[in-house]
Amino acid sequence: MLYTLLFPFANDFIAFNLFRYITFRTGGAIFTSLLICFVFGPRLIRWLKAKQGEGQPIREDGPETHFKKKGTPTMGGLMILVSVIVSTLLWGDLSNAYVWIVMGVTACFGLVGFADDYQKLTQRNVRGVPGKIRLAAQIVISLAATLAILYVAKTPHTTFLAIPFFKDLWIPLGPLFIPFAIFVMVGASNAVNLTDGLDGLATVPVLIVALCFALISYLVGNFVFANYLQIAFISGAGELTVFCGALVGACLGFLWFNTPPAQVFMGDTGSLALGSSIGTIALIIKHEIVLAIIGGLFVMETVSVIIQVASFKMTGKRVFKMAPLHHHFEKLGWSEPTVVIRFWIIACILALVGISTLKLR
Asked: No. of H helices and E strands in the chain?
């Protein structure tokens, strides 16, 4: 909005020329979303606590240490959603279709998560919206977003899958791109949701992915840098840097209230929205496999659940003491801060590996 309103006057007021730079507007988005969280976060937490009473239901079969969290309000993801969308509207180029696609997916998945959280609170159980209904809603949203990406994209590589560490290795997916894109969005969304089981555990890895994707989006959207790094140039993708900046600021702001002991949980409202946003960005900038590397922690958590369920159904035995993986380590006696910080370290290492794919080709 500020770009649209102020940049046309750059010839009259030289300071307005700053709005042409994506880096400047990204910095503005980070600061704005952070400020929104700090200003409105305490008020939102008080309101959620007043409305929810007993707070988020706690799993009866979960680690014993979690019972002391009873009464902590959920739906804190509203703080993230509002700050990200407001910041992007203020600092983004609203003529860019990619920005609207990512914001739309984020908001819609956030609504699905909100419905799930609301159902858990009103029914006082951990089930929420039936899994089939929630999955169907996610697929419909992802399908609409995929069709929008195909309509907007101007690159021949749109339906191709880039293989990192290789200069020109692209796998043509053709019509299979549509189910693949749906899988990426839905998979990323639910992977972040599974990871969000401890205070701050999912927030920092998402922040790390957003930082990495801010850099990659900027490079992909710049013809000179993209050509130098031998990655696909995608016109307009650079504007997603601003959205990633808003995501970074929102995660930092939310983390202020979500560090142990958490004053609020993000709930499905936040985790489903965050996961869907990074999945959609990965599809647009053609770094889907890099997402699996940088977001490897989310992959580990998801695979642990798949292994646990498959093993129990086939053999009647459990591989882990409890899934997702972070609960397994809690059952082994690790304290919650130990699990969280060590998982953050893993996320940082994976991010370095993912970023290295830009040059190691």
From this structure: 14, 2
Other C-beta atoms closer than 10 Å to the C-beta of 240 total 32
pLDDT digits (tens, 9 = 90+) for 123-136: 767 677 888 999 99
Q: Which residues make Cβ contacts (< 8 Å) with residue 314, sequence separation at least 6? A: none
HSE (CB half, 13 Å, CA atoms) of 223?
A: 2
What phi and psi values does residue 9 have, to the nearest 5 degrees? Answer: -95, 15
Q: Which two tokens stand for residue 110?
A: 């956030």
Q: Does residue 24 contact residue 18 with C-beta atoms inside 8 Å?
A: yes
- Give the model confidence (pLDDT) of 232-285 as tens digits: 999 999 999 999 999 999 999 999 999 888 899 999 999 999 999 999 999 999
Q: Which amino acid is at 33?
A: S
Phi and psi angles of residue 172, each rounded to the nearest 5 degrees, phi first: -70, 125
CB 32 within 8 A of CB 91: yes
**Contact between 188 and 283 (Cβ < 8 Å):** no
Rounded distance, CA 116 to CA 333, Å? 31
* Confidence tier at 40 by pLDDT (50, 70, 90): very high
Domain regions of the chain by residue span: 2-356
